[in-house]
Amino acid sequence: FNYGGNEFTILRIHDAIRNYKIDSYAYVHRLDTDLLNNHYFSKESETLLDDDVLYTIKFRKTYPGFSALGRLFISKKDYAIHKMEYAVYDLWSRKMDKKQKKRGNNKQLIFKIIVEYQKVDDLMYLNYISFQNRFQLFSSPFMVTDIIPDLIEKRFKVKFNNRPYGEVAQIRGNYRVMYKGKELTLTKIAVRDNTVLLYPDLDLGGAHEMFKEIDKVSNIKKIGPEFLNFEFAKEIIDVKGHHLNDGVYKEYNQFREFFVQQVKTQTNVPKDTLYMKKDRPIYKDQIIVKPLNFSDYWMNTPLQNIDK
Length: 308
Known about the structure:
Blueprint: H1 7-13, H2 35-38, E1 40-49, E2 52-63, E3 66-75, E4 81-90, H3 98-102, E5 108-120, E6 123-139, E7 144-150, E8 155-160, H4 166-169, E9 175-179, E10 182-184, E11 186-192, E12 195-200, H5 204-220, E13 228-232, E14 248-259
Antiparallel strand pairs: 1-2, 2-3, 3-4, 4-5, 5-6, 6-14, 7-8, 8-12, 9-10, 9-13, 11-12
């Protein structure tokens, strides 16, 4: 269920046709059980694909603040699904790009997925998949980047992306540390470059047991705010005068697509090579072995020049 950062895995998990028995994405969810219940369907004009006639089925659903639209292209002969389009829009957002305004579309796209299958030897194989989505990231010139419990020195290291201003950064009222629902008293605060050191007021035995338990819990699961929580006042500033967490949310758009260039219906699992790690990006510490016919493939853009 953790898709990690592998681009190919992220694309494939959004293939609701292939993954029809698992929760793929809202609001299709499980294709075999949820698609019919979550949408209204209507039949459009039939479409031709070579010599095959395809049903064109439109489906939609409106939720508070959102709308979902999709299309299915299904063979009239054997009911094979050749293509599926699905998009979810934000009805409340008034931000639109120029292309949307030109097309008269007054809805903000959240994500859009197109999956296409082709028939090879009477079986259906993935031919194309694309994934487009919009998301927000918080950007601030001054923010906390990490908090590290120091088991040896019995203190907390609060790391910032910039150097905090010394006098303000050492005011105890600017920090609140909660351990198991109780606030800890800080006896000392020190600034070392981009790091603020917080020393809790505990006797030696109590501090040892607390940090020992923090270390034990962190090795088992992610520490939640009910166990250990930090609060920082906005009055904390960096050496350039930026207040802590003063920033904006920036919108980004990403688009990924994958074309199948060759379908191998007869193949064996390789025994003399390493496999891709599915939780890592494709081009990060991955051993990539080029096939013998690598020159036959197109990878990335721009497209290759072909001699006529």
